[in-house]
Backbone:
């Protein structure tokens, strides 16, 4: 049994013969479909009726190849509110038959302590990977410690943000998790727990070769600054474990869930559907980006001072960063993009953000484009008071409202944007828009040289491949937390237009989002004018 497969039961299965694999791949699907249809023709000629599902399978292959066109090259109109292809996919996270049950605490290789790092969503990735590492090491995981010393200065513990009992019980078949190292074990130790930091994106072999021997020797081991310390590309079973942790086990506490759902309900009372925008236009984000946003010398000085907090950051060219697509859009640019995509000015927006750099003056152009803008502070001022001193709890509320939105717009490639994009793909490919900043930045600079229709058409062209469609990223590529391809399965194609009454067999699957687990859950400058307000068409 290979080292990487140590978390699976022993198996006698062998890999397919390489020669056979090569030969099988050399036959195109079109040839296979041709033979199928030829056979169907003979059967139909002789019997007058197609008595098999071969036709369905041939359509299935054609259907799959149709999905492969969803990479931005297809020029068919895109529904701006939901993907018409999402119904063909569902989240799948079930354990395989060779995935053995969790090792009991007394039989494990020791206790694994984890110190997460960063803000809420950065820590969320660390917690997810911590469970997987505990599985790899056959260790008992102690409920991770959250970061109290980061930029956000939040002293919340795990149990203040996540439902700790749900977390432990949900993962009981995967990893044994305890709230603390037993006192008996701590008293028996001659030395304090060994502390180490593993390299970023270490593969399972590293943990087995370098970490496991220390764990066996010291019995209790702490891994510090644990964020993105596990490789992106893992065995399918471990990837599905990541999904069970991230999308199911990490449920927020009841007060956070209740407040988040109340805000969602208040948005729904005003509009049947809404867009959530994660602006990420706070001073620290802008300073970190090294970009310039048109605020003159005052902006350069203010952001320059903030940037000094990170002593290792290199000197960057603001123009160069913008051309490379590394700069977040301004609130005005986000509004222009959304209007150009087809969202009318009576659309309701929920803005998830901290302190906006420039305040109301920065936000006003967005409000002119979309007057119906709301924030959690506007919708739940009194209920938020107990949370105001805790940035991670506030971020958790925003997370819920953004996840429940009909459309989510991520204005940067930060941790919250990636995690939410991945969860929305897993939960049914809910419309998720990521600005194609590299192309849009040049388009925004030249927008006064074209009329509105031309600008809108160009924006739509730029955004193809950035709208959250199922086929935008090839399976296995991209950050797994953003593109959890292993955990997104495809349903069989159902020919709804069949005339002979025959229906293909349906795949029986469980709805993974129901029950308590879903609680989380063309011209000159003068011609560049926005279209007049339109009635909402629901």
Residues:
């Amino acid at each position: 049994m290979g080292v990487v497969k140590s978390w699976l039961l022993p198996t006698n299965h062998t890999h397919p013969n390489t020669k056979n694999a090569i030969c099988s791949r050399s036959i195109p699907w079109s040839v296979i479909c041709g033979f199928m249809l030829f056979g169907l023709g003979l059967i139909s000629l002789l019997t007058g009726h197609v008595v098999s599902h071969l036709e369905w399978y041939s359509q299935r292959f054609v259907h799959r190849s149709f999905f492969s066109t969803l990479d931005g090259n297809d020029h068919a109109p895109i529904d701006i509110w939901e993907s018409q292809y999402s119904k063909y996919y569902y989240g799948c996270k079930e354990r395989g038959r060779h995935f053995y049950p969790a090792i009991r605490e007394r039989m494990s290789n020791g206790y694994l302590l984890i110190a997460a790092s960063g803000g809420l969503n950065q820590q969320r990735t660390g917690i997810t990977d911590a469970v997987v590492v505990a599985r790899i090491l056959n260790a008992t995981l102690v409920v991770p410690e959250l970061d109290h010393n980061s930029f956000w200065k939040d002293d919340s513990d795990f149990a203040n943000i996540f439902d700790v009992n749900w977390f432990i019980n949900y993962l009981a078949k995967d990893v044994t998790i305890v709230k603390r190292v037993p006192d008996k074990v701590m008293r028996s130790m001659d030395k304090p727990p060994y502390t180490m930091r593993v390299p970023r994106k270490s593969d399972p072999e590293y943990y087995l070769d370098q970490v496991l021997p220390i764990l066996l020797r010291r019995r209790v081991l702490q891994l510090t600054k644990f964020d993105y310390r596990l490789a992106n590309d893992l065995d399918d079973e471990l990837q599905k474990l990541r999904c069970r942790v991230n999308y199911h086990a990490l449920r927020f506490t009841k007060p956070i869930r209740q407040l988040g759902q109340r805000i969602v309900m208040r948005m729904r009372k005003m509009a049947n559907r809404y867009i959530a925008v994660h602006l990420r236009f706070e001073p620290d984000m802008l300073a970190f980006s090294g970009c310039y946003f048109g605020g003159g010398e005052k902006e350069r000085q203010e952001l320059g001072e903030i940037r000094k907090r990170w002593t290792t950051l290199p000197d960057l060219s603001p123009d160069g960063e913008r051309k490379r697509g590394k700069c977040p859009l301004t609130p005005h640019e986000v509004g222009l993009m959304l209007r150009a995509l087809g969202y009318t000015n009576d659309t309701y927006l929920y803005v998830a953000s901290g302190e906006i750099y420039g305040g109301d003056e920065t936000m006003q152009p967005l409000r002119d484009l979309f007057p119906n803008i709301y924030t959690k502070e506007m919708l739940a001022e009194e209920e938020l008071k107990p949370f105001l001193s805790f940035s991670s709890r506030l971020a958790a509320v925003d997370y819920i409202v953004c996840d429940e939105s009909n459309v989510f717009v991520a204005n940067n490639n930060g941790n919250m944007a990636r995690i939410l994009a991945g969860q929305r793909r897993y939960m049914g490919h809910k419309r998720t828009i990521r600005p194609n900043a590299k192309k849009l930045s040049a388009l925004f600079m030249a927008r006064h040289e074209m009329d509105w229709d031309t600008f809108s058409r160009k924006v739509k062209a730029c955004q193809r491949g950035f709208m959250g469609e199922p086929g935008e990223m090839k399976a296995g590529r991209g950050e797994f937390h953003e593109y959890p391809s292993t955990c997104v399965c495809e349903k069989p194609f159902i020919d709804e237009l069949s005339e002979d009454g025959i229906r293909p067999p349906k795949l029986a699957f469980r709805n993974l989002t129901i029950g308590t687990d879903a609680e989380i859950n063309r011209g000159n400058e003068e011609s560049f004018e926005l279209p007049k307000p339109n009635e909402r068409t629901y």
Observations:
- The first strand starts at residue 89 and ends at 91.
- The mean pLDDT is 82.
- The two ends are 56 Å apart (CA to CA).
- The domain at 105-249 is CATH 3.40.50.11340 (Rossmann fold).
